[in-house]
Amino acid sequence: MNWTPTNKQKDDVVTPTFLDIVESCSQLQKQVDCPDEYVQSLLRKIADTWAA
Q1: Residues whose CB falls within 8 Å of the CB of residue 34, separated by 6 or more in sequence, listed in order
Q2: Per-residue 3-state assignment (H helix, E strand, C coil) for 1-44
Q3: pLDDT tens sequence across 9-24
Q4: Alpha-carbon gap, residue 6 to 46, rounded angstroms
Q5: pLDDT over 80 (residue 52)
Q6: For residue range 19-51, what is the model confidence (pLDDT) as tens digits?
Q7: How far apart are alpha carbons 29 and 31 in whole angstroms?
Q8: What whole-number distance in Å separates Cα of residue 44 and Cα of residue 36?
Q9: How far apart are CA 18 and CA 10, in angstroms?
Q10: Residue 17 and which of 24, 27, 35, 43 are 20 to 30 A apart at CA?
Q11: CB 26 within 8 A of CB 16
């Protein structure tokens, strides 16, 4: 990958998005009482969406 976000993009978009994803995964885990491995698998599936 040759692209790197600017510091402003990191501060304004990337970091908040990352924190939102982490919070969403934490809420999912609390609501359905799933193990860490399930969340990890879900995140891999999401990442694979962009790998295709």
Answers
A1: 28
A2: CCCCCCHHHHHHHHHHHHHHHHHHHHHHHHHHCCCHHHHHHHHH
A3: 999 999 999 999 999 9
A4: 24
A5: no
A6: 999 999 999 999 999 999 999 999 999 999 998
A7: 6
A8: 12
A9: 10
A10: 35
A11: no
